[in-house]
Amino acid sequence: MSGDSSSLQSSAVIQEAVQSLRNGGLVAFPTETVYGLGADAKNPEAIKKVFSAKGRPSNHPLIVHIAAPDKFDQSHIDWVPVLASWVRDISEDALKLINAFWPGPLTLVFKKDKTVPLEATGGQDTVAIRAPAHPLTQELLRKFKGGIVGPSANRFGKVSPTSAADVRHEFEEMLDLMILDGGDCAVGIESTIVDLSRDCPVLLRPGLITPGEIFKKTGVKVFLPHEYAAIEGQTEAPKVSGSLRAHYAPTTPLRLYAPGRVLDALGEFPDIKSRVAVAVWDSDSSLGGDGHPSVHFEEILVPSDSTSFANKLYRTLRDLDQQGWDLILLPEPPAGEEWDGVRDRLQRACFGSGPSSNSHANN
Ligand code: TXA
Ligand code: MG
Asked: What integer pLDDT is reported at residue 166 of this predicted model?
């Protein structure tokens, strides 16, 4: 999906990456969603290095990335042999989702095969798998002939990287970290996660692929966490690490404003007099009269279409975070499931934003 041929790297570089993975090293790789920080998914020591590089608690499970079968340009692909060494059972629903969306930005959670190290799954009996669509990483996976664990290549709780330069910025002092440059990520937010290890499919993380689209293409109903909790008579919905209230967070304070209510959002920051970046939909011409005499707003246009907004989201947060604003205000995403992925990331980014965002009060 992403990365034109000029940004693809030579097979010598891929070979070096394969060697590094085989030696238990880390390799950052591009995907269509965000960049991942990769290690051999069946090497517990290598997996531990991923957790320590990110500063991620070891009970937060990782996604295993796998190659599509060789004949992946043919209309009928047999994924069962590929999955056999990772998962225990593959339901009819699983095959429908896989055939409709892999390779692509959809992660599926299964009961794990006993050979999958508990280090990769945060000690759980389930494993998250996805086949990313980026051609460079597909080539890496095919040549590696194994699975690669890959959390987003950012420090724990911070904004996910959507370019090779972002990864370098996150891990500046890890000089020996090999980073495969596959250009800018096409989707821009992390994959949709659907849990197939329970009695019915449950959405664990919203993304570009929505339950509505899944239903339309496959007839499979994916339950939202609160719907699932209600059926099961549970009070707690299933959780993933991205479901911490603080995540994807810039260091500059970030807030959302309701349509036409920029000044309300400022109420929380009475001392701010200047340097406020206000994003406005590119479909609205400007903030109009919605100003404030003592505050200098600077307008930034953001796409009013959900797919383009997602594509620019982390890029915008990173760039604004480096420009020294006192406050960043973004418009609240409109209602509708196509905005759920963006809304989810923005709410957590707001909650965790600000200079003390390392504290993660909700861990
Ligand atoms: O788009 C993506 O999914 C990116 C790219 C690199 O593939 N990866 C990514 O990884 O977002 P990470 O580690 O930042 O997020 C993985 C999410 C976490 O929220 C984790 O809790 C959840 O997947 N997860 C992994 N294994 C799981 C499991 N067995 N059960 C439930 N959730 C799981
Ligand atoms: Mg992440």
From this structure: 97
For residues 286 and 300, the model is more confident at: 300
Query: What burial class does residue 285 get, using C-beta atoms within 10 Å of its C-beta: 0-12 exposed, 13-18 middle, 19+ buried?
Result: exposed
| Cα(135) to centroid(ligand 1), Å | 20
Among all bound ligands, the one having the nearest atom to the CA of 187 is 1
Classify residue 31 as exposed, middle or buried by CB count within 10 Å of its CB (0-12, 13-18, 19+).
buried
Global pTM reads 0.92
pLDDT at 359 over 50: no
- What band does 103 get if pLDDT is binned at 50, 70 and 90? very high
Contacts for 150 with CB less than 8 Å, ≥ 6 apart: 29, 31, 36, 37, 38, 39, 62, 63, 65
Distance CA 254, CA 306 (A): 19
> How is residue 73 written in tokens?
């340009």
**SS3 of 195, please?**
strand
Cα–Cα dist 231/282, whole Å: 41
- In 173-322, the DSSP E strands lie at 178-179, 192-195, 202-205, 254-257, 276-281, 297-302
Q: Looking at 103-216, which runs of residues are DSSP E strands?
A: 106-111, 126-130, 148-149, 178-179, 192-195, 202-205
> From the centroid of its chain, how far is CA 182?
16
Write the burial class of residue 287 (CB in 10 Å: 0-12 exposed, 13-18 middle, 19+ buried): middle
Give me the residues paired with residue 331 across strands.
257
Q: Where are the beta strands (DSSP E) in the chain?
A: 27-29, 36-40, 63-65, 106-111, 126-130, 148-149, 178-179, 192-195, 202-205, 254-257, 276-281, 297-302, 327-331
State the distance from the centre of ligand 2 to the C-alpha of 250, rounded, in angstroms.
Answer: 14
Q: What is the pLDDT of residue 284?
A: 78
* Crossing angle for the helix pair 340-352 and 306-321, to the nearest 10 degrees: 20
Which DSSP state fits 89? -
Q: How confident is the model at residue 208 (pLDDT cuts 50, 70, 90)?
A: very high
Pocket test for ligand 1, best of 54, 59, 63, 180 (most atoms within 8 A of CB): 63
Pocket test for ligand 1, best of 2, 108, 193 (most atoms within 8 A of CB): 193
